[in-house]
Amino acid sequence: MRECKKCKSNEYTNKQLVMMINECGHPLCKNCVDNIFALNSGNCHVCNRVLRKNGFREQIYDDPLIDKETFLRRKLRKIYNLKLDDFENLKEFGDYQERFETLVYNLVFETNVNETNAEIQAFEEKHKEKIDRNKRRLDEDQKWVEDQLRDERQMKARINEHMETDAKEKENATAVTDTRKIMDELRDSNVAAEVILDRERKKQIEKELEEKEEQEKRKRRNKEMLQTRKRAAENMSFNTVIRIAGRAYVHQPLELVINGPPMPNASQIESMGYLAHIRHASADLIAGGYTSALGCSRALFEARIDLFSF
Amino acid sequence: MYATSTQKREWTYTPEKLAAMRMEINLKFREKYESVIQPEELSLFVTPEEELRMQRSIEDAALRFADKFRPHMWPSVKWTALAFFKRAFLVWVPSDTSIRMVMMACFYLAMKIDEFYITIDGFVQNMNVGDPRQNAERILKLEPELMKVLNYNLTVHSPYRPFEGHLMDMKTRMLLLNFDLESIRLDSMSFLQQALQTDVPLLYPPAQIALAAINYGLHAQGKSNEILREFLRKLIGIEEDSWDARNDHPQDLEKLEKTVTRVDQIMKEVERNFVAVTEQERENHKSQLFRMQNLMKELDTRRKAAWEAGGRIGQEPGLVQEEPVDSDDE
Predict the structure, then answer these.
(1) N or C: more exposed end of chain A, with fewer CB within 10 A?
(2) Which superkingdom heads the taxonomic lineage of this protein's source (chain A) (predicted)?
(3) Where along chain A do its domains lie?
(4) Phi-psi region of A22 (alpha: psi -120 to 50; beta: other; left: phi over 0)
(5) Which residues of chain B make contact with A298, given a CB cutoff of 8 A?
(6) Calpha distance B223→B322 (Å, rounded)
(7) Interface of chain A toward chain B, CB-CB under 8 angstroms
């Protein structure tokens, strides 16, 4: 669960919680950032480092360490963007990549920060030309990804085109039969030609209007759907939902089938004098919750149960 | 509650079904050894009736053991133990097991079930045969096997509490009797003791057996069935033999008649099937069981030899098959 260490608000108490993180890697929620860094600069609440408000970015990964690493890595990649063909052989390229990992590690865990920054600066000055040139160049992997994306886009476009032509053809076909019908009618019937044409035009306009309406309706429906979904996501609750459904529960007392003569009830056991024929319960038995009526009713019950089972 | 118990659902039979089951296990047992048996040994493979007689003599001894047991056990322990014993021998065969030990294990288990707590050491002190340590070991080993055979249906409803219930009802409702109802207790208890040596516990609901015991006691006091009828009329709530009642609630009268018939039936069943075991019979059974047990060992080795000679096809005879056990610990 994500929680702001400063104000203790978390995902459950605040549905719109946004966690922010700065270069030192100690997350804060957006509200805290707005409060503490109202003057654009302030101290980190954990490590007391001086931070600037515009250095804050949204935290993407739950683990602040990983977030910090990806951020630094991306930043460093802008400088360390040499490609394989900038080196004489594979080994040198490997060494360069290894060095890059070491630098990232140093920055993330803040060991030898000054030396590392100095090294980066030196590297930047030394390879300024190559870096500038590589800014526009893509390496093999990036090229491959681009290719794939392009292919996919083209594929989609082709399919769309295909479908559109199909639809058009269909439309044409119906239009053709319609015109043919109209021609026949014009030739065969003795109604004035203007009347027929008028009627047909009117039909066409109506059809177009209908189509338009239909489209709008569809659009509206889609929009509504999106909105309701969004609203549902915002109002998602983990409370138990009380659903009121079905009939109300009506308690029916359980029926005890004895299959024997009827049992006398508790008051009858006393009034009919059953208790004269059972040993009197001693004081310690009564203290334990036993009464002689209890023992009596047990014996009577067992004498009756299934007496009439033949 | 008996009506929903495993006793009613799983362990109550009709006499015909009982006989069929006994026949079946007897035949199965005979079949198992048919290939290796020799003609002169055939006499030891007894009929179901003889097996039942063997059970009865063990039961007889067990009841005497129970009455001599110290501390004095309450009667429902006896009933539970003998019910376990009868149930177990609807699955096992007397010749195949050490039947005397099974009876002891039944008693030991029944004491636990009926909350008559006694330690195994206290239990074996009451046994007058064998070495106490060995006995304890055998009983404890048999106990889980016994429970398995009983399918873990361990609750047994005995007629002793229903008996007290009926007696209480009688004392409360039958105010015009001119004798002490307590006088029937001794005879009724001996009736239940006799019923224990019959199949009655496997056939009828405990409430009915208890009523039969009451009626037996009444008969022993020289009374007729009329007291039972009167009692049932009051219990069901039928007015004194009026014609109105006959017309208004015919089903009530039918219940009354059926109950009386059932009580007579149970009493006859006990009377007919309870045959006291004679000293001679006991000796015969003892020697027969002893010879059978020796023969069993011999037959098992023979069966194994046949299995080895036949090229060890199939499962080794006499080997206990371990079934996988579901355990919560795993």
Answers:
(1) N
(2) Eukaryota
(3) 19-135, 192-233, 266-304
(4) beta
(5) 161
(6) 58
(7) 257-262, 272-274, 276-278, 296, 298-310
> In A, which residues are within 8 Å of B4 by CB distance?
none
- Residue ranges in chain A modelled with pLDDT below 70: 174-177, 236-245
DSSP B277-314: PPHHHHHHHHHHHHHHHHHHHHHHHHHHHHHHHTTS-S
The structural domains of chain B, ordered by start, are 15-156+278-309 (1.10.472.10), 160-273 (1.10.472.10)
B159: DSSP letter:
S
Contact check, Cβ <8 Å, B3/A299: no
Which residue carries 């360069």 as its tokens?
A: A96
CA–CA distance, A36 with A39 (Å, rounded to integer): 8
For residue A255, with 0-12 CB atoms within 10 Å meaning exposed, 13-18 middle and 19 or more buried, which class applies?
Answer: exposed
pLDDT digits (tens, 9 = 90+) for A270-308: 888 888 888 888 999 999 999 999 999 999 999 999 999
Q: How far apart are the first and last CA of chain A?
A: 67
Report residue A283 as tokens: 């004081």
CB-CB under 8 Å, B161 with A298: yes
How many Cα neighbours within 13 Å face the side chain of B83?
32
Q: Nearest-CA neighbor of B12 among B2, B22, B26?
A: B2
Measured from the Cβ of residue A248, the count of other Cβ atoms closer than 10 Å reads 5
Burial B42-61 (b: 16+ CB within 10 A, else e): eebbbebeebbbbbbbbbbb
The identity of residue A278, as a single letter, is: I
pTM of full prediction above 0.95: no
User: Which residue in chain A is spatially nearest to B231 when comparing CA positions?
Assistant: A261
Distance (Å, rounded) from C-alpha B127 to C-alpha A28?
81
Global ipTM = 0.86
Of B150, B266, B163, give the one whose Cα is nearest residue B214.
Answer: B163
